[in-house]
Amino acid sequence: MSFTKEQLLPGENLIILARQHPLVLLKPVLLNIVALAVLILVAYSSGKYWVMALFVIPLIYLLWQYLAWHRREYILTDRRVVKQEGVLSVSSFDAPLDKINNVFHQQSFMGRMLKYGEVGLETASEQGTTIFSFLSHPLDFKNAIVHQREAHLPDRAGSRINEKSIPQLIDELATLRERKIITESEFQEKKRALLEKM
């Protein structure tokens, strides 16, 4: 089951729904290409063209991996960070923003070139550190978590958000929109919600 607005708590707003970089599907795609090449070679050399039916096996594997990729979601709301995955059965992990002690990201040289990496959360719960691996645009996701956490924590006056940070948050949302991490409608919805807090 994909994360839906019905899973939001009362008054909670969805900020980002992110997934792993599509590059995680490279292995099953290459496996299908190799399997197809081998089966064509075997069928052509032996004259037994029925062996091509065996291609359904790597094809099912590719479909399963795609479904697993599509259902592995990293969600940021204005209250928590959620990691949800599973095709037939679903498991999820929630980290309330006020329980997050540290947020970090890590990218290899190749990750910086292809825009993937990992984001880690250190929480005050028993879970300790949670890793969001092979995430597309990890720095954007990390920065969005940091901004939401700062907005979520009360300031000295007891308010939920500092008005001076609202233009900066809108700029961050615009960057996420340009990178196609959030849609235009999501951008407008979040912008309107931020402006209402001024």
Structural account:
- With 198 residues, this protein is of the alpha+beta class.
- It folds into two domains: 5-20 and 72-196, Pleckstrin-homology domain (PH domain)/Phosphotyrosine-binding domain (PTB) (PH-domain like); 26-65.
- It is 42% helix and 23% strand.
- The protein has six helices and seven strands.
- Strands 1-2-3-4 form a four-stranded antiparallel sheet. A three-stranded antiparallel sheet has the order 5-6-7.
- Helix 1 (26-46) packs antiparallel against helix 2, helix 4 packs antiparallel against helix 5 (166-178) and helix 5 runs antiparallel to helix 6.
- It is elongated, with a radius of gyration of 21 Å.
- Mean pLDDT is 84; it is low at 155-160.
Q: What is the CATH C level class of the largest domain, in words?
A: Mainly Beta
Estimate the helix proportion, in percent: 40-55%
- Judged by helices, strands and strand pairing, the structural class is alpha+beta
Overall pLDDT score: 84
Biggest sheet architecture: 4 strands, antiparallel
- Choose one word for the global shape: elongated
- Unreliable sequence segments: 155-160
